Amino acid sequence: MSSCVKIEDFRRRARRRLPRMVFDYLEGGAAGERGLSRNREAFSKHLFEARRLTDVSHRDASASLFGKRYPLPLAIAPTGINGVLRPGGDLMLARAAARHGIPFCLSTASTSTIEEVATASDGEKWFQLYVLHREQGMLFVKRALDAGYTTLILTVDVAVNGKRERDMRSGFKVPFRLSPRIALDAALHPLWSASQIRHGLPELANFATAQATDASSQAALMNRQMDASFDWAAFAQLRNAWPHKLILKGLNSLAEVGLAERAGADAVILSNHGGRQLEDVAAPIDTLRAVAGKCKMPLLLDSGIRSGADVVKGMAAGAQLCLLGRATLYGLAADGEAGVCDVIKMIASEIDTTLALTGYPRVSEIGPEALLAAH
Question: Does the annotation flag 69 for ligand binding?
Fold first, then answer.
């Protein structure tokens, strides 16, 4: 992967390797995809105000969260159905994260089980929960607790499925439903097809265990048919059931962050689900600049991050860690576990370069004074 010099290069390789239906699932957003564009444009409008004549001969990109220090200010975000990109995709992501000393977040919609991922690497693992049914959700929480996951993430921006037009047009489903068009698409991508056939087509593994065999729940999760009644009272029950750190993912306003803080959340991930749910909401980097400093709890950031410079902007705006979603998935699709590692190394190198050129030897020192006011 030495020929890849930016994340877009991994994206192009992923696009060549994947059938159109699968690439569109990875790449797509809600409705007309204005949210996708807004997330990227938001990072480009926040500009650095660099310091000069500071000693940046030694640079430190490490960051702290919950009293633990990580060598990079990164985590791998929870993403679903990664087995359609590469068989064993969740395991590859977990191992790559462990190799670089950063947390890996496993999605409820994974194609490897909670337990398989727990034994696949010795790195720090967080579990992201979708609540389809309260009882089933608590079963997943217990499984994650028993398997040694250190942090629980509750995603709260999927009461119903966003309108994902690319998936509607392509007929993307798990398990796959073959049609002549899909069969032709697969035939035109023989490496991907051979790999899927050799390992077996992916399924939502957490719903296909002896503990939770439920085809209807798999279908409901694919369609994001969540428990739309889940509210702050239900969150209180979840809070009582989970003894470790609990993060809310999908908030995007100061008011909601305040509610989360009062309800006992340990941190918040400012996120709009990568632009895949509600199209016309603020980019999380913009929300972060408005919220940071107005609450005591840690703030994390995802949605739209494609470079080390984006990560440094997020840290300057007030994030404790930044989560990588599509960026690492492009690497996974392009070259498996090695591709994920290459993406992390590329972003780490870009973080280092950005720190040097902005005049900040340590990412922990950078703050809002390093960013110009957004216009």
Answer: no
pLDDT tens figures, 354-373: 999 999 999 999 999 999 97
User: Helical H runs in the chain?
Assistant: 7-17, 20-27, 34-45, 89-100, 114-120, 134-146, 165-170, 180-187, 190-199, 215-222, 232-241, 254-263, 284-291, 308-317, 326-358
Query: Could you give the dihedral angle defined by the CA atoms of residues 312, 314, 320 and 324, in that order, rounded to the nearest 10 degrees?
Result: -90
- What is the rounded CA–CA span in Å between residue 265 and residue 245? 8
Strands 63-65 and 68-70: antiparallel
HEC string of 62-109? CEEECCEEECCCEEECCCCCHHHCCCCHHHHHHHHHHHHCCCEEEECC
Q: What are phi and psi of 47, to 5 degrees?
A: -105, 150
pTM here is 0.94
150 labeled binding residue: no
- Annotated catalytic, 46? no
pLDDT (tens digit, 9 = 90+) per residue, 248-272? 999 999 999 999 999 999 999 999 9
AA identity, residue 93: L
Q: Where are the domains of the chain?
A: 7-370
Q: How many Å apart are CA 344 and CA 76, to the nearest integer?
A: 9
**7-370 topology per CATH:** TIM Barrel (3.20.20)
How is residue 232 written in tokens?
């702050």
Task: Please report where in the chains the tokens 């049609």 appear, as a residue.
Answer: 179
Q: With 80 as the cut, is the pLDDT of residue 375 above it?
A: no
Nearest-5° Cα angle at 369, 67 to 259: 50
Q: How far apart are CA 232 and CA 258, in angstroms?
A: 12
CA 274 – CA 291 distance, rounded (Å): 19
Are 93 and 328 spatial neighbours (Cβ–Cβ below 8 Å)? yes
Over residues 222-247, the pLDDT tens digits come to 555 688 999 999 999 999 999 999 99
- Tens of pLDDT, residue by residue over 70-116, are 999 999 999 999 999 999 999 999 999 999 999 999 999 999 999 99
Q: Residues 6 or more apart from 294 whose CB is under 8 A from it?
A: 254
304 marked as part of a ligand binding site: yes
CA separation for the pair 274, 345 (Å, rounded)? 22
